[in-house]
Amino acid sequence: MDFPQLKIGHMVPAVPIMQGGMGVGISLSSLASAVANAGGIGIISGTGITVEDLRIHIRKARELTKGKGYIGVNVLFAMNDFAEKMKAALEEKVDFIISGAGISRDMYSWGKQAGIPVISIVSSAKLARISERLGAAAVVVEGFEAGGHLGTDRPLFDILPEVAASVSIPVIAAGGIMTGDDLAKAFSLGASGVQMGTRFVASEECDAPQSFKDKYVSATEKDTLLVKTTVGLHGRAIANNFTKLITTSDKLKINKCRDCLKNCSYRFCTLDSLLTSVAGDAENGLVFAGARVSEIKEILPVHKIIENIKMEFKAAAAQPLI
C-alpha cells in the first residue's frame, strides 16, 4: 500500500513526512534540503540564529534542492524576534511558515497577504479550531512524547482523533513518531501526514555536531527526563551534567543572558544552554530529544531513514485489522 497523499496549499510531497523544526542549529539548510530531496517536507528552524543567517539558510536550501521540493521555516511566537524572522521568511518566499509556543493573529494575515501557507503547532482540539478559524492551512498536533518544549501531558494518539474530528484542514501527527507502524496508526486515527524530529537528528545530513548525535545513539530508556526551562514549560531532554545542575540546584548563575524570550524566568538562559550543546559540548548544555530516542541505534542518511519507513509502513498496512 502506498502512502496517502498529503496536500497543504500548493504542497503535495511524494511522502507525507514533515521534518520537525529543531533549534538551536539542529535543523538548518542541510537537514531541511535532504528531507525535501527525499520527497518529504523540510523545515529550517529560525530559533537561535540571526535574521541574516536565516535568509542564508533558506537560499542555501533552495540551491541544494535545485528549487524543487518544499522548504519551510519554523518561527516561535515566544521569541522576541518572531515578527522579524517571519517577515524575512515571507520575503524569501519559503513554501510555508510553521509556528508554535503561542498563536498570533498577525501571522495568518501576513501569510495570506504573501500567498504563503501558515501552519500552527497545537496540543488540543480547541487550539486546532482556533487556528483554523484564524486561517491556518494545517495544524501539527504534538503529543507528550515529543522532544523539546511540551504543550500537553497527553499522549499523541489520545489527542489526534479529537483534533482530526474538530477541523477540516490537514492534521499532521507529531511526538514519538519513529517507524512506519507509527505512520499507519496515525493515518488510521485521522492524520493526513506526520512530523518527525528526533529520528532525523540521527542522520548524516543533520546540522547538529557529532557529539549531539552521539547522545541520541547512546541514550537508554532511562536517560530522558523532563526539565522546567525559563520558557515556563517542561521540556524533554537527555540527561547530562547540565540537566543534573538545573534539577538539583536552586541557585544558578546565568553565564550569559541572550534576551531572547518575551517572558522569561531568568533562572538560567535556555537559549545559551542550547547553543552550548550545538557548539560541541553535549554534557553542559541542553540536548532536547523525544521520548523514544533510545530506539535509535545508528546514524543513517535521510533517504535511508525514509526508505526504511516506507518498507515498515507497507508491512504494517498489509496486516489485517484486529
From TrEMBL:
GO molecular function, one term: nitronate monooxygenase activity
CDD domains: NPD_like (cd04730)
Coiled coil regions, renumbered to chain: none
Pfam family, one: NMO
Record's keyword terms, sorted: Flavoprotein, FMN, Monooxygenase, Oxidoreductase
Superkingdom, taxonomy of origin: Bacteria
Alphabetical list of PANTHER family matching this protein: 2-NITROPROPANE DIOXYGENASE
Function noted in UniProt: Nitronate monooxygenase that uses molecular oxygen to catalyze the oxidative denitrification of alkyl nitronates. Acts on propionate 3-nitronate (P3N), the presumed physiological substrate. Probably functions in the detoxification of P3N, a metabolic poison produced by plants and fungi as a defense mechanism.
Full protein name: Probable nitronate monooxygenase
Classification of source organism: Bacteria, Bacillati, Bacillota, Bacilli, Bacillales
